[in-house]
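Note to self: user wants both folds in one dump. Writing first protein now.
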Amino acid sequence: MLTLRVGLARSVRPRVLTYAHHRENPNFQSSHNLPRYTAHSLSILRSFIVLFLLIFMGEEVKAIVPESVLKKRKREEGWALAKKQELEAARKKRTESRKLIFKRAKQYAKEYDQQEKELIRLKREAKLKGGFYVDPEAKLLFIIRIRGINAMHPKTRKILQLLRLRQIFNGVFIKVNKATINMLHRVEPYVTYGYPNLKSVRELIYKRGYGKLNKQRIALTDNSIIEQALGKYGIISTEDLIHEIITVGPHFKEANNFLWPFKLKAPLGGLKKKRNHYVEGGDAGNRENYINELIRRMN
């Protein structure tokens, strides 16, 4: 194998012929006496002739490529292949995730519809028997802070901090149990609460929902944010989050801690009397299902 370094020859500086040369041979024309571009063209022609002869004679011509260039090419090819595989895997995962989210959303809609039909059936059955239907004890509460810190006991302030109600018109979901009920009795003059329905939970999360990711407050504009924080609990979309909250599922604590406290606006039409209880014509305390009407005014 013949290895040849092929390059363009440098243009030769023209040689100035003296009068003696012309006198001895006046018809002589040297390539050195030709214009600069003509000498350059002759050099290129010589190179092509050499290449042609080598190829014609059966010799293989191989250009010399620096080793650093070869390593760079190999490295870039590896990077391009890895990136292509990564994009393909991400696209496949995104497609499968979208199908799963759609399937779960249909399943949740069917479940909510069945619950509503069952509730109507039970109410009709109780009415036919001459009685009345009593709703089961609620498992979910939504609390809204309506008063500031004036003349507040330190223990009351600490409970509000534990409930994450640090500002006026902040709202949070909590699970109903003995401990939370005792805490609510202590802070009742400063908050109002009730039992939110599915519509209220969905509107709150979709309109004013923010998540806590890496200690940062991030708007829930993409399912990938929820999947990144709660994917290990099987919650990968907004509908999964809503279902976990409204049903107070096994991972309610993680889902609720992920949600940043809702920052609501002042209620349309204002509040009546913040210092009085709701049953006395005020705003504080338990308003049961009427919390949904207040959420509409503040959302």
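First done. Writing the second protein, which came from a different request thread.
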Amino acid sequence: MKQKYCAILFSAACILACGTSCVYIDEELGSNFIPMEQRYTTYIDEFAIDGIAMLPVEKLSGYSSSRVTIGAIRTETGEVSRRSSAFSLIPASEYDFGEGGEVVKFHFAIAKDTLSYINESQKRILQDVNIYALDKSLDEGDGYISTEIDPSGLEQIADGAIYDGGDSLSFDFRKEWAERLLHEKLQTLEESAYDSVGAFTEKVFPGIYMAVDEPVSAGGRINMFTITTGADLEYYTLSGGYATMTVHGVKYEGRDELVDTTFMFLYGAQDFSITQAATDYYSGETLTPQYALNMSSSTLDDLATEQPSDEIIVDGGGGLKPVIYAKGLRDGFMEILAKNSIDPGSVIINKATIVLPFSESTSYESMECYPAILSPTCKVYGEDSDGNEIVSYAGITDTSVSSENQGNINRSTFEYSPDISYHMQQILDLEDYSEDAEVKKEYEQKDIWLLTLAVEEEQEEQEGTSEYYQNLQYSMYYNSLYNNYYGYGYGGYGYGYGGYYGGYGYNNYYDYYALAAYYSAMSSQSSQSNSTTILDRDRYYKAVLRGPEADAGEQTGTGTQDGSKTELEKRRVPYLRVTYSVRQK
């Protein structure tokens, strides 16, 4: 019996030994069959970025199809960031304004979009909003965010316009100005003024300019309003975002009696209509596009320099942004290749990452004013129909690759680290730098401008589901009027008086059941939230990054074990980390 158990134990030991024994895997098996010209050696290198500037954004368009932005913020150290806006007032139809009459009211209303401020205490402060009549059309300007309009030579056309951060900005234009606009401009306009929006702003009224008073002490707020007129194209109802001129006693040809009427005006509309018919771009009826020219200025612009030392400031709007020169990136990488005796023509860049650290002592309160994304872009040059040069900014991070870092802030490692892999390959392929005008232009087009982006949440309602639950609400409401235990009251007219004397808590059981189902479904299915990443020219930002000559006192770094940190990670200065492959010979 003992021999039998010994045999079993011996067999089990053998099986266990075989199961845990090492199996050698030759990972180079078959490598001899790969042709030499298809073999690559991979390298990882990094170098400090010295060619970095701190400049206001050049030739960035200030036109917005969604927002009117006004406001001002003063920091504790005295810097001031301003926002102002200009846009046209366009009749919502090709009105006949008649003759004579008295302007009873010319009212302006625009809905709040969002607010931007340094701290919560400034959210509901009162701000004086100054409204001026433009003396020339916006088409005569360059349309850049850096555009400056001097209000000292403009007529102020509204009194007591005050905004408290609430749901809308609302005020009345001065009556005497509204009278002049009606009698001297609108009632005398020629038919050709309706040929185009441009003709109207040129011949009749250019538009309005809005700005707020600067705060005298630290604080302030930047306000963003929705420029588009809210309209339901199914039921043809309006929900705000337009101006109305109410006129009494207007005389029209062919009518004996005087008419009381109201004219509607749209903000920055591109046609004399709330909606536009189907076009080559839109298959059905859509809202008419509307635009405002939003402008920004900042006292920080005086700190602009092509060779920042210890700090790199990122400002909002068209203010200071980091600019990394293509020449500096190419020179730094070529130096590494030369040390390793590598032919630049044989290099394939697998990944290139710009690392922009900021101080590890930055408070979370301060980081609230840091942009969510610092996106690497380059300037793209073109020409308009008149042959004038136009400039736009194109993102250079591959958004189709989920692993590519778009430049998101990392609050754990205190850095931005956008990827520029394909763009770095293009920089490497440039010919050697020279003073030749065409060569300099090519390098300039590859310079990297880091612009501020924001991630915004949009609530999208499922239309069919929304209608169903709206009808369910009506059903429950009328049930409470007529089906209550004592449900008489004043319910016959359905104005909310039903059940005042009746009911006393004896509501129909099915009302409670329907209400429970309503809340359950509404919370889960009736709407969905979508996030969109946009170029943010509106909000207040101030981020302070470490410059090329930042004090070496902050040498610990974060995010990796001390033993694995490179020298540049410890120094926490801007640098480029590049992974590349070289064909073997």
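Dump finished. Worth passing along: The chain has three domains: 46-56+300-362+376-458+544-583, 66-290, 463-525.
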